[in-house]
Structure formats: structure tokens, C-alpha cells
Amino acid sequence: MTPAPADRIRLAELLDGVAPLLLVADLDELRRLIAAPPRLPPGPEAPAPAAPPQASAAADNTLLIDSTRSTAACRGREVGLTRLEHDLLACLTTEPIRVWSYAELHRSVWQDEGLHRKGDVQSLVKRLRRKLHELGTGVSIDAVRGVGFRLTEHQQPRVSGS
Fold this sequence. Notes:
By secondary structure, this protein is an alpha+beta fold. It has 6 helices and 6 strands; from the N terminus they run H-H-H-E-E-E-H-E-H-H-E-E. The chain has helices at residues 5-15, 27-35, 52-60, 83-94, 102-109, 118-135; strands spanning 64-66, 71-74, 77-80, 100-101, 139-144, 148-153. The chain has a 3-stranded antiparallel beta sheet, with helices on one face. Strands 4-6-5 form a 3-stranded antiparallel beta sheet. Helix 4 crosses helix 6. The radius of gyration is 19 Å and the shape is globular. Residues 49-59 and 156-162 have low confidence and may be disordered.
């Protein structure tokens, strides 16, 4: 179901300043945007390509989920994930910042409604939080009281030398 334009505008207003937001009409539009790099006119005004060290620094802080090996990696570290941990992390990363209800997480991870079984989700989140912390990621799973959980990225404090 595609959200109505008014719903997308309301979402953009709610997330303003909280997270980057890209609104697309459908999945095909998103694929076109991702696949096609912007075309720049030839000439001396064209900017130089990005320097490789910056790209590798960004990649070092990226949380990578390997579904084939059922692992998560970040900053050169890797942890193994159980099937449930993998499925929960994969679910949360599909729409970061979205609050996932306990029922939605149960449907996605256990393929059932999980009514009155919040403890299953809470226990799994606790184990996954520990593994994300071991990796040293800025990613965490935040509880939204009475609703469920969301995946957020917290900025790591930077130490400057002077």
C-alpha cells in the first residue's frame, strides 16, 4: 500500500531534522534513483571524484549484515547471529527510525502474532543489543515505552587532539 501524498508530507514534517528522508512514489522509483548516478555536464566545472580515504572511513563505521553467513560486522569486528537475531536486525534495518510494535516484530521474526508474548521480543533485543555493543557500532535498539522498538544510530563522541 502506497501512502497518500498528504501522509508522506506529514511524515516528512515529523522527521524534519531527525533523520535524512527520501520520499519516493514506489519501489521502482527508488531503484531508478539508486541505480542511476547523477549526470554532470562535461567541463572544468565538474567536481573531482571523492577521495578514497574518506570513502573507506565511512565504510568502516557501517554495520554490515551478511545473511549468507548470518553475521554482522563493523569496524573490522564480526559477530555471529542466530536466525532470530538476524531476522530481527534485518527487520529493524528495513525501516530505521520506524517504531516496530511487538506484534509486527513477532510476525516478521517468528511468523506469528505473538499476542501477550512481549518477553520473547525483549529477550531477543537484549541479546542483539549486546552483540551490537561488542561490534562498537553507533547503532542501537531503542525501546519506545508501550509500543515496541526502533533502530537508531547514535553519534559516537569524537576526541579531538590539540
